[in-house]
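Dataset card, provenance and construction

Sequences and ligand SMILES were collected as paired inputs. For each pair, a complete structure of the chain with the small molecule in place was predicted and serialized as structure tokens. The example below shows a pair involving zinc ion. Curators did not alter the output after generation; any descriptive sentences attached to a record were derived from the structure itself.
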Amino acid sequence: MSPVTINLTLPGYRILRWESNLMMRVYVEALDPPRLCACCGGGRLRSKGRYERRVRHLACFGRLSELVIACRRYHCADCERSFVQPLPGVRPGRRSTEPWRETIYERHDDGICASVLARRERLGPATVARIYAQFTERKAKERLSVECPRVLGIDEHTLHRGQRFATTFCDLHRRRVFDISPGRSEAELASYLRTLRGREQVRVVCIDLSNSYRAMIKRWFPRAAIVADRFHAIRVVSQHLLRLARQLCPALGWNRAWLGLLRTRSDRLEAQQRQRLAQLFAAHPVLEGIHALKDRLCRLLALKTQNKASCRRHIRTLLELIALLRKDGLEPAVTLANTLTAWTQEIVRMWRFTRNNGITEGFHRKMKLIQRRAYGFRSFANYRLRVIAQCG
Ligand SMILES: [Zn+2]
């Protein structure tokens, strides 16, 4: 290891000599020995003798390396205490340098599994796990703002192939995960919500059309306005009306091509698809009305950044469409009408508001990858740390 290399990777040391066997061993000493006492700041120091510290350092020209640092113990004549020399880039008690620990963390974070990394670096796998845990914890502490964000997105996601649920609290303003907590019911989340600081200041909460979440937010976030999530609202409309279409036209069955045509917004269809849809309507005229209704509803729900006057106009349209849904008294349509009636207020706020839980859903995708890479988590605390470190 040339003097240049060590100065680049770990400044503050002078090289004395080096040995190059299976492992590169570099003998160094710190450039600045202490002049003042670490305890009292006094200047009357006496050396109590030399000792060596061996620490792992970054690989050099493809060879694993170790620093042998010549250190001293000191005695202070002012406070009568002894202390060891602090070293740049090496924390007290650690047997490796901070740059080296960081590369281990980064390589494991990039996806090299602990056992492979341990074999390559000649470590125990537990050391890799320990370094990773220390760095994620530090990162989680740095990023986790203590106060609850003003604009929250709340949604559930699954753990262990859908057997367990967890709730995500997402900061929609800064686009990051604020926290996750196990469970999705109010009873399960109550202990977490009770400790949440700053929940009185939360202004907006975005949720899917779930009654249990709505009741929970009214109780725990008293000043927050609840906003329906656009993606979920549109999905509910689409699901119910496709169910109605299948009920009225059994030939539709599970024909994926036809269902796909009906599901797509008509302004996004290509010419060929439009033609096929026209053929479908010619064969089953009942579908045309349902498709037109679905299209109008979805287009209405997709609106955003509307002013108050246009919101009033859209409410009238929404109420008309709800009345149309109720007219024939068919089951999926009436259920949908009831849902939309129960959520009218939240849907109106959705028109005024731009952000939605698409951000939260994106993080759910990332969380699935985190779970997958770890082959599942036994401890929720470890899972939470990783989520906050990587999505927070
Ligand atoms: Zn002292």
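Derived descriptions for this record:
The chain has a mean pLDDT of 87.
Strands lie at 13-20, 24-30, 45-60, 63-76, 82-84, 151-159, 164-171, 176-182, 204-207, 225-228.
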